[in-house]
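Weekly sync, protein design subgroup
Attendees: M.S., D.O., the rotation student, P.L. (late)

Item 1: inverse folding check
M.S. brought a backbone from last month's batch and wanted to see whether the design step gives back something sensible before we order anything. D.O. pointed out we never logged the input encoding, so this time it goes straight into the notes. Structure tokens as presented (313 positions):
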């Protein structure tokens, strides 16, 4: 018999990729902790009947599927997952990723040790489209910027400064504590940086984010992902530059001038753009390199500075 309130919920926003969705659900069922609930939020990117048949085929009462009445898009579907979750803890498991078997156990342990944290997270293993281990230079560099303490904690200006220096939190590993998160949600208008914006807002509001170096999540890097597409068309970098401009202003208003300086420098965004421009030159794509160098020189996302204004608690 199912408990009325599970210890941890998994909301799985889905748009397309049934084979990967199957893997994601199987990874939930393989958790070392059995007291969980999972809901696939189908955003109608594929045949709704096929999605429902896949989910119901597991014949596991802990797993449900809900089809959106209309396509909500990434941010809207993420927020629906948060809004519909039962209990205290919810993870937005990306449908093309996999949990490692100890993920729920690890998040529950962190939550017990840090009852006031708004969000908990872990390290991730990188896998490719076929599930084989992979790596990227950017991810390897960011790992060097993660605080060394175990577990590590982000709070106040020092926490915001560390986050902006490296943007090292792997978004889908986050486990959100709903009573602390309250009504705060991902901002509409963003397509790539909605997670970083929400984390920064939590820190500006005085909340805490806690993470572990233990890798309990498998994050899939593949050419069809939203991150890959939006990196290629530079949407990602335009949004990052715009968000850093906004966070610099908010930090300055708060009197957090060290965080403001980090945000204005945008070092991690510039470095990533530079690495990609060099890769383009090596691949004999001078036009693509010039486009990225243009963003690098301008160093501003003012064209998108108005995106995602607002947010509630």
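Designed sequence read out in the meeting:
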């Amino acid at each position: 018999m199912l408990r009325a309130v599970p210890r941890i919920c998994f909301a799985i926003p889905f748009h397309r990729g049934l084979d990967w969705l199957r893997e994601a659900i199987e990874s939930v069922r393989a958790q070392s902790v059995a007291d969980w609930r999972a809901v696939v939020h189908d955003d109608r990117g594929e045949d709704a009947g096929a999605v429902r048949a896949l989910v119901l085929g597991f014949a596991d009462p802990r797993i449900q599927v809900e089809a959106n009445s209309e396509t909500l898009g990434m941010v809207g579907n993420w927020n629906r997952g948060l809004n519909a979750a039962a209990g205290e803890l919810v993870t937005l498991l990306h449908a093309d990723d996999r949990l490692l078997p100890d993920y729920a156990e690890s998040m529950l342990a962190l939550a017990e040790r840090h009852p006031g944290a708004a969000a908990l997270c872990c390290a991730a293993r990188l896998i490719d489209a076929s599930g084989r281990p992979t790596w990227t230079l950017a991810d390897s560099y960011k790992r060097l910027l993660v605080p060394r303490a175990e577990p590590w904690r982000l709070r106040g200006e020092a926490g915001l400064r560390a986050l902006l220096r490296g943007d090292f939190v792997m978004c889908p590993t986050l486990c959100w504590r709903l009573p602390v998160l309250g009504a705060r949600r991902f901002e509409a208008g963003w397509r790539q940086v909605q997670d970083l914006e929400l984390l920064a807002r939590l820190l500006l509001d005085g909340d805490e984010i806690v993470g572990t170096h233990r890798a309990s999540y498998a994050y899939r890097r593949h050419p069809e992902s939203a991150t890959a597409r939006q990196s290629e068309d530079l949407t990602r970098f335009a949004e990052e530059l715009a968000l850093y401009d906004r966070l610099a202003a908010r930090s300055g208003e708060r009197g957090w001038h060290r965080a403001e300086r980090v945000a204005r420098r945008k070092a991690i965004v510039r470095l990533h753009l530079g690495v990609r421009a060099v890769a383009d030159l090596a691949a004999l794509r001078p036009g693509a390199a010039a486009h990225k160098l243009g963003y690098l020189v301008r160093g501003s996302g003012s064209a998108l500075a108005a995106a995602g204004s607002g947010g509630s608690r």
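Discussion: The first helix runs from residue 18 to 29. The chain has two domains: 8-227, 233-304.
Action: P.L. to compare against the previous round before Friday.
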